[in-house]
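Subject: two folds for Thursday's group meeting

Dear M.,

Sorry for the delay on this. The cluster queue was jammed most of the week, so I only got both jobs back this morning. I'm pasting them in the order they finished. Each block is the input sequence followed by the predicted structure tokens. Could you check whether the formatting survives your parser before we put anything on slides? The first protein is the one we discussed after the seminar.
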Amino acid sequence: MRPFTAAWGWTTGLCVMLACCLGACNGGKPNPAAEAPPQVTVEQAFNPNNFQVDHPELFPLVTVAERKTVPALNVTGVVQPDISRAVPVISLAAGRVVEIKARLGDVVSKGQLLLRVQSSDVSGAYQTYVKAQNDERLARLQLQRAELLFSKGAIAKSALEAAQDTEDDAKADLDAATEQLRLLGINKDHPSGVVDVFAPISGVITDQEITNASGVQGLSGPNPFTISDLSYVWIMCDVYENDLDAVHVGETADIRLAGYPNQVFKGRIDNILPILDPSIRTAKVRIEVPNPGVMKIGMFVTATFYGRQPVSRAVVPATAILHLHDRDWVYLALGGGHFKRQEVVGAGIAGDMQEVASGLKPGDQVVQSALELQNAVEQ
């Protein structure tokens, strides 16, 4: 038993020594695997375009329907006067304004007195008239005398013809002087140094270039007034070149005013101007509209143009559309509580239904209230 015990002790000591040697040979270096940091668990960020909810039954779905509709294009425009119905008020006499009977924005009638001008042109025109009248009287007497002498054989026929020619010239000068007074608005029997200027048409004064005591220069200066017939007005719209195929001359357009939202006015596309604005790539489209009296110059309007052929479009409740970051979105159901936020392009609105030009097809399932799901997701 003793020898066995000694051998066992010797074996144990040898193992201990070997373990120490191995530790020394390792140099006391740590085990990299043992000292590595714990593995990081990465949580996936929420993806708003594809996610899952725990209780999808809280968000009812609707089926995307289909509707045949005429495509519509909405653009903005401004009310302007029809320049073919704008008539300048002209004072043929130059002088100083002594009285103004109307002003900018007034509604006037044809023949209404607008202003009075004190002018030296009147005295010159009247002097010319009086001189022409005297010359014609003398020429007429000379012609009568020549006719009497010619009948007695006292003068030659050439002398009679000369007297007749003088009388004709004097008559022409008198007619011209009389017409000049008429154009100036002067009564030849009661001349005055003040010229009255009347409205040439009925309408609204849309421009005024004079004030009291200001001067007018006749035909060489600016017109004192401009009168516009506003029974018809122009709507000038800007249409992007990509949308010009939806606009055709001769077709009708719907006009809506911000001040009268419940009224729709009909207009006819009169012209599409051939020059594009190089900065914003738009063309001017002119619409002629009968004015019932509520359209004011400078008003902003919305014009709606309609296509020629109906198209099929998806239709959803207006509540299914979420307007976010200047875009329109719907929540498309993928099944199993999964939803996808889908961008769409909205079109016209008919009551509580919204037309969708692209992004959906009939038969798709979308969340009926996109705002409720959006709020739930954000929480």
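Second protein, same layout:
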Amino acid sequence: MKPIYLDHAASTPVHPEVATVMYNMLLNEYGNASSVHQFGRSAKRIVNGARDRIAGSLGCSPEEWIFTSGGTESDNLALFGAAYASAPKGKHIITTAVEHHAVLHTCAELAEQGFEVTYLPVDATGLVSLKDVESALREDTVLISIMYVNNEVGTVQPIEEIGRLAAERGVLVHVDAVQALGTLPLVLRELPVDYMSFSAHKIGGPQGIGGLYVRRGAPLMPRQHGGLQERGRRAGTESLAHTAGFARAVEMAVQGLPEHHEQALELRAALLEGLDKHAGAGGYVINGNEQHSVPGILNVSFPGARTDVLLMNLDMERIAAASGSACTSGSLEISHVLRAMKLPEELLNSAIRFSTGLGNTIEEMQVVAQKVGTVLNRLRNRD
């Protein structure tokens, strides 16, 4: 059987068009965009062209876009850069208990350096309360950091409402939008957000490159020093192949959003229909918010089974799924997101994330559901 990949929330296959763009760059373009000769000028045009195309696709100005090495660096740059630039006004930061570790660990480091961090709770579906955000605001609050789409359960947070509330209080807002790009419509100039983080490898682009939107006028203290690349905000020679590949991936993700959404809905429905048939309608529980979520991320618990055993058995059946964030799933620890949702132990210990994307088919969903049922029956009969 051909392997079935259902871990697109961790990383996606590079789209063939993106690979072609990058291949041509690697073969034909090798100048440094900071050089003044013709090779450097050609490289500069490629980087600026990629920036222009991304800005055009996401509805912002080119000068508001910074190329980074990925979502983690974008989160770090936004949090450290905004917090230290705003420190004279205050040192209080608000975030949630279900953020990606790129945000949580950065906030922990900021706390070690004298900032105070408030971690907002979420409800049983992973949704943060606007009232909790408002109650947490203080005179010395300088930054709110809340992700758009949760990478483990797919819950969509009320970013526009939070952004408007923060703007009224003069508080900066950072949004980790790594899972939102390609799944939600984004027009950055219309969103009440100051910083937004992105990653190429979640949308059919290459690993190793991301971006940070910084609203014009929003303060940002650089974290990486050297040259004057990215308008002095992020030093380092730009990768021509990566920037060009990222730009093509963003264009396709934005243009193909309606089709991608419809396909994700169909795949989700097929997988759930199959689970009803092979695992039993009462044999599993969906984790997350069914009303406010993206269809491509489906987190399911199978009471009576263990996550690690399920994943191992599915892997032997050549099916790739995950236990949560790719940055922690290698250790198979209990998800901090599910814990923050205060789920019962039987759901915490049996949760699996299926995430769909390019190349997945309804037939694959039927096979996955059948294999899940087979594995569950084998495990339960063994007990």
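Two things I noticed about the second structure. The chain is about 40% helix and 15% strand. The mean pLDDT is 95.

Cheers,
T.
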